Amino acid sequence: MKVLAFCLFTVIFNHSFGQSSYPIEGKWVPEGFGNTLYILADGKRYTYYCVSQNCDSIFNTYEANDGNHLPSVEDYTFNNDTLNIDLNFGNFLNSQIIFDCDGNIAQFQANNSNWIRLNTNLNDCNSSGLSNTHTELEPQIFPNPVNDKLHISFDEVQYGNMSIVSSSGQKIMEFTFNDNQIDLDLSQLEVGAYLVLINTTTGFYKAKFFKM
Length: 212
Fold this sequence. Notes:
By secondary structure, the protein is mainly β.
């Protein structure tokens, strides 16, 4: 009886503390960044880029630490459904992960972004994970690509918060606003692809833009 009780306690303890319903290891494509692949394996995140029209077929040939990845490799831990990635230079990505679509969508609670497992057909998912990408809120975001100033305009005054997230998942800037016209100075931003995430009382919106 004592052995059985100990086994039951061990199962409950492991399920409640440190054990995720789905693994984080594998190949992931950040939503909105189809030319980027992350492979998470053995506590390391490897980043791959693709310039082809058919990136998925190329990504399928890549394996962790195969030499095709970018030189920078980040350490990560995944405990209690919380992913922590050391992005170097004192920057960290730390977020609770909520899985959807049988573990094929990883929703980041810290920045309202999603990763999608490579080769996932979203049309076959019984998922609500990407349903909040667009709402009735449809701000105009221009120009795209952008050099210095990114303009965001709403049909009416909106109150909320906004953040800019890089393709690596790093939050570049975050602020609140109460206006219908917003001008962002991105002149110091490095060249690359980014997401703008907008949260207001009327809904949530995300859009991809490229900084030249």
